[in-house]
Amino acid sequence: xxxxxxxxxxxxxxxxxxxxxxxxxxxxxxxxxxxxxxxxxxxxxxxxxxxxxxxxxxxxxxxxxxxxxxxxxxxxxxxxxxxxxxxxxxxxxxxxxxxxxxxxxxxxxxxxxxxxxxxxxxxxxxxxxxxxxxxxxxxxxxxxxxxxxxxxxxxxxxxxxxxxxxxxxxxxxxxxxxxxxxxxxxxxxxxxxxxxxxxxxxxxxxxxxxxxxxxxxxxxxxxxxxxxxxxxxxxxxxxxxxxxxxxxxxxxxxxxxxxxxxxxxxxxxxxxxxxxxxxxxxxxxxxxxxxxxxxxxxxxxxxxxxxxxxxxxxxxxxxxxxxxxxxxxxxxxxxxxxxxxxxxxxxxxxxxxxxxxxxxxxxxxxxxxxxxxxxxxxxxxxxxxxxxxxxxxxxxxxxxxxxxxxxxxxxxxxxxxxxxxxxxxxxxxxxxxxxxxxxxxxxxxxxxxxxxxxxxxxxxxxxxxxxx
Length: 468
What we know:
There is one protein chain. With 468 residues, the protein is mainly alpha-helical. The chain has 19 helices and two strands. Helix 8 (165-185) runs antiparallel to helix 9 (208-232), helix 11 (285-298) crosses helix 15 and helix 15 packs parallel to helix 18 (431-454). The longest helix has 43 residues, at 2-44. It is globular, with a radius of gyration of 22 Å. The two termini are 42 Å apart.
């Protein structure tokens, strides 16, 4: 009886640790999505054409942000493992390599995306009416990528070091600056009334291009600021000018081994979404705008799962680094349960508030109605999606970033890509075909992640995982 009581108290303590670490990360994701909501709503006031110009680039932006996440995984999991075994010198060395890697990779992304900015919307089948705005959006967005990569990578490194509050502050700052810059860059000069007084507000009137400029500048400012803080603030991952920043092959090899499957996972997802975008684009600007609004609104449902995933990677990673299989197993189990609950609550919110959520992003009643229908469809799969997000974080914490890749590959290409065209062309379901196929994909992913984690041999993982 006493043993059972002690076990219950330990689970409560571990659940509290997980949620306290996840809390700031969840809030960070909420603020990030709130800024995206404001972005979409501001652009939506310019009309369905402006919304479509941004929407056609959504898969490309998703790919780029996923690549930034992959770079972060490559370095941050190494930090979690090294701190778990008490090797602070190695954690600091990883931090220095992360800075060099982030700047180099960010510059490469900037050159590639900027150089192809005019072509990508054409390849995605954008209508002539939105090509100019869509190309400008990608061009200006690309300019902030080197420092945006630093922001993404060091946010991940800090979370795996057990600090989720600093990433929250800096990403919240980036979101706030982005909203302010959007307000100034998107709209023309105008008069607004505050407390009965008319105030003239300067505006650049750049429309869609202004939204991209705001994103690039805000991420750049906060990325640079975060790097400076890590130079100044004493911590196990502090950057010091007196230490070597010369490329370290063992850290780079391990970063590639951890990050490459995440890159392949995001490429797999993005390639599939590009096909989905082509399908949606073929249905016209109304469907394209509604799809973009629905995808943006759906983001709120899995934010808690993403925050829990960050915490799971850190806690499981530190347990694996410390060669503690029992602690790793318990954190994995708790994470899965919390992930399902979080996804279920998110799905319920989507279903019940589909229309008001859609209305936040567009005043167009047709776009609003179609987007709300899509949200009600996808709501039923959110518990499975929440489970897959959290357990993917668990697997990365163990050093296994390959399994999430293969699961996404099967879900996207073995389920969604096959179902969507059949439902669209054979069954004539319109935009609903794409979202029904998404439900099937997300459900399969959740089940497969659950099976994989359930079968993990944590003792084997802790004693054989490749760690320097």
